[in-house]
Amino acid sequence: MKTVKDFLKESREMAWHNRLCYSKTYLMNEAREGCERLFEDSVRDCEIVEELIRLVKKEEAITAVREKLQLGKDFSLKDIEELKGLLQEIVNVIS
């Protein structure tokens, strides 16, 4: 079954493909003549899908932290290090 992450990865590939198709060069920073509106839309699609991927990663990390904190047990050093890593991942995503 396709996951949200799978869907977003496919969407990202299609957004970047469209951006390349409507670009004047392989640098993808200028629209092909007559495709200005489509190029602008494809650039925005790339931005949107990247933001959605960041949000999904952030939510996954937050969920993992919540699950760790709800265990109701004493924390070992390993648990604390894992939480530290998850929190750092959240910080990286929102930065």
Short characterization:
The chain has 95 residues and is mostly helical. It has helices at residues 4-21, 36-69, 77-94.
- Biggest sheet overview: none
Any idea what the radius of gyration is?
19 Å
Query: Runs with pLDDT <50, length 5+?
Result: none
Give the termini distance in whole angstroms: 31 Å
Global structural class: mainly alpha
- SS strand fraction: under 5%
Question: How would you portray this structure in words?
Answer:
With 95 residues, the chain is mainly α. α1 (4-21) packs antiparallel against α2 and α2 packs antiparallel against α3. It has 3 helices and no strands. The chain is elongated. It has helices spanning 4-21, 36-69, 77-94.
What key attributes describe this structure?
mainly alpha, 95 residues
Layout: helices, strands, pairs:
Layout lengths: L3 H18 L14 H34 L7 H18 L1
Helix pairs in contact: 1-2, 2-3
